[in-house]
Design a protein that fits this description.
The chain is an alpha+beta fold and 188 residues long. It has helices at residues 12-21, 41-50, 75-92, 105-111, 121-129, 147-151, 154-169, 174-186; strands at 27-30, 35-36, 62-70, 101-104, 136-144. The longest helix is centred in the middle third of the chain and has 18 residues, at 75-92.
């Protein structure tokens, strides 16, 4: 599988939009730089999107891996994180960007891709994707870095993330939320 390197200004939404607009497949997958796909992921994605749905259900147009497996040395916290992400994904259909979101190219084009905002671009995209049906969920964990969980702290990272989501729903400006996130990262 070849790769094409694209140069862009900073900003995840901008960078991911540049990537999918230069792709030529019928499905695009968005992977965080600190995450690793399992071997055979292409077949998993294809099978997940091809899964037959009951007649009254819409076709599966997008999806994610069920959970993350962050390299956190504390086994209990690692397990709590893994199970919480799994529950949020299964019950609420709200995966986050670190779960390797994949979307049929026709749908990402229809939606216009990611909003080019300073934070919450993946959260916003998932909210819009949910209007087109539930995600196809691959029942595997995606390995991702636990660096932030380790350096900032498990509880502080969790509370900061949840506070940012709550503030987002309350209409706090995205620039303010991005500042909170950066401050949380540098607090360790």
């Amino acid at each position: 599988m070849g790769a094409k390197v694209l140069l862009s200004r900073p900003g995840r939404g901008l960078q991911m939009n540049l990537g999918w607009r230069h792709s030529n497949g019928d499905c695009v997958l968005f992977l965080h730089a600190d995450s690793t796909l399992p071997s055979g992921y292409q077949g998993m994605v294809k099978a997940a999107l091809s899964k037959q749905q009951p007649a009254q259900m819409p076709s599966l147009l997008w999806g994610c891996f069920e959970t993350i497996d962050a390299d956190i040395p504390d086994g209990l916290r690692r397990c709590i994180l893994k199970q919480a992400v799994k529950a949020r994904t299964r019950w609420r259909h709200m995966p986050y960007g670190d779960q390797a979101l994949f979307v049929k190219a026709s749908l990402i084009r229809e939606l216009g891709g990611f909003k080019e905002v300073p934070i919450m671009e993946d959260y916003d995209l998932v909210k819009r994707l949910r209007k087109h049906g539930p995600p196809a969920i691959i029942p595997h964990a995606l390995h991702t870095s636990g660096r932030r969980w380790q350096t900032v702290g498990f509880c502080r990272t969790t509370l900061t993330n949840q506070a940012i989501i709550l503030a987002y729903h309350c209409g706090v400006p995205l620039q303010t939320l991005a500042g909170w996130y950066r401050k949380g990262q540098s607090a360790a």
